[in-house]
Design a protein that fits this description.
The protein is α+β, with helices and mostly antiparallel strands. It contains 9 helices and 5 strands; from the N terminus they run H-H-E-H-E-E-H-E-E-H-H-H-H-H. The protein is globular and about 50 Å long.
Length: 188
Amino acid sequence: MSLPRGFKANAEREALRLRAEMGLRQTDALDVNTLATHLGVKIVSAGDLIEMSRLEEIERIQTYSFSGATFEIGGRQFVITSPLRTPGRRASDIAHELSHILLKHELSEMREIDGIPFRTCRPEEEEQATNFGGTLLLPRPLLVSAARQGLTHAEIADRYQVTIEMARFRYNSTGVGRQVGQFQRAAG
């Protein structure tokens, strides 16, 4: 599956626009809770809604089956997150759900799990939300700055409160490593 033409460039512009709107520099860490508040979205831990033992049971049945979901109730949007995830993974999950909201995705596909129907986004919209969520957390200028400083994926993850997997994904998918390597070789 591929993203629509121009999607990545538009995602970069929108991520930087939102940062500027919030008074952040392009290279500042983004607190997804602050972004949610800025967008008028309430973040709620699933642990505040049901017993942790039920969430742990779901996790035992199928690992990572629930990380986050978005609901609209009474005209207000809520992102529900799993308290079982690490802070870095929760940041990615929240950024992903906020991306669905920013991209105005509709719940349009019916799925069924164990006889229970539910609505979800189309696979191409999930891919868009994953990419845009990563861009919100780690826009290209931030990654270029980190690469020029020689930060490893683990150091990027630690500094910007994301997972190592997210740092690696964004670093590799943007081509920043190649760009900075060429820049450093030309300067050296």
